[in-house]
Amino acid sequence: MFSNGLPKGEYQLVINYNYPVDMYSGDKSFIIASENWVGPRNLFLPVTYLVVGTFLLLVTILFILLWLKQRLFRVHPE
């Protein structure tokens, strides 16, 4: 819709008092975040997903190899 960003001008954001925050001394806020096609600019989460995914893939391959080794070298009593 706005591929080049919002047009210049003054904007007004109205936040209704639908959820009371006075009872626990809270406040309401509105955060505008910018992201690109691969996600947020902070790379911590994507890198963490890649590291954990790679680790789990290697552990899976290790378990499959151990299972195959146990299955192939099993001694059959006769």
UniProtKB/TrEMBL annotation:
Pfam families attached to this UniProt entry: CDC50
InterPro entries in UniProt: CDC50/LEM3_fam
Compartments where located: Membrane
Cytoplasm in keyword set: no
Key words of the record: Membrane, Transmembrane, Transmembrane helix
Residues that span the membrane, as ranges: 47-68
GO cellular component: endoplasmic reticulum; Golgi apparatus; plasma membrane
Major localization class: membrane
Protein family membership: Belongs to the CDC50/LEM3 family.
Name listed for the protein in its UniProt record: Uncharacterized protein
Biological source species: Caenorhabditis japonica
Lineage: Eukaryota, Metazoa, Ecdysozoa, Nematoda, Chromadorea
